[in-house]
Design goal:
With 155 residues, the protein is mostly beta strands. Helices cover 8% and strands 45% of the residues. It has two helices and ten strands. Strand 5 (88-93) and strand 6 form a beta hairpin. The longest helix is centred in the N-terminal third of the chain and has 9 residues, at 2-10. The N and C termini lie far apart (75 Å).
């Protein structure tokens, strides 16, 4: 009711709208269209439970190799720990010392690569890649029990 009274009091002035200027001509894009819409090299990141290591999953510029780089957030150092010709489906932590990488190997099936992180007294890290001989998937990384994972296999 209030608004109707206000509209009636405004009369014709309330019905007129101010003239708007036409929109400006579009200028050049800040980036070329090819760059703007290209596939991203960064595929994903995963922070360790303690927040000290960041696993960075990316695809190389050739689009044929996938890598995992590990960034030590305390030392601000990055090291490539895995390079693969197959893309990873899942990257997950099992505790602070184990990174699980799931992928599918053609004609074989789902596989898991395990990267174990050893640290010396000075805090430097050494990365060891462990292979699972069995075909299967990680069902649960068992974060509360970092020495074990729940693994399902059909072999």
């Amino acid at each position: 009711a209030f608004y109707r009274k206000a509209q009636a009091a405004a009369g014709d002035a309330g019905k007129r709208r101010p003239a708007l200027a036409p929109p400006p001509d579009p200028g050049p894009l800040p980036l070329p269209v090819e760059t703007l819409w290209r596939a991203e090299r960064l595929q994903g990141v995963s922070l360790s439970p303690a927040g000290k290591l960041l696993a960075i999953y990316r695809v190389d510029a050739d689009g044929k190799h996938w890598t995992i780089d590990m960034l030590d957030l305390d030392a601000n150092e990055t090291q490539q720990i895995v390079r693969s010709e197959l893309p990873f489906e899942v990257m997950q932590w099992s505790g602070d010392e184990t990174l699980l990488l799931s992928f599918v190997e053609p004609a074989v099936g789902p596989r898991v690569a395990v990267v174990h992180i050893d640290s010396d007294a000075a805090g430097r890290h050494r990365y060891r890649q462990l292979g699972f001989k069995r075909v299967g998937r990680v069902l649960d990384p068992l974060a509360e029990d970092p020495s074990h994972i729940l693994f399902a296999s059909t072999a």
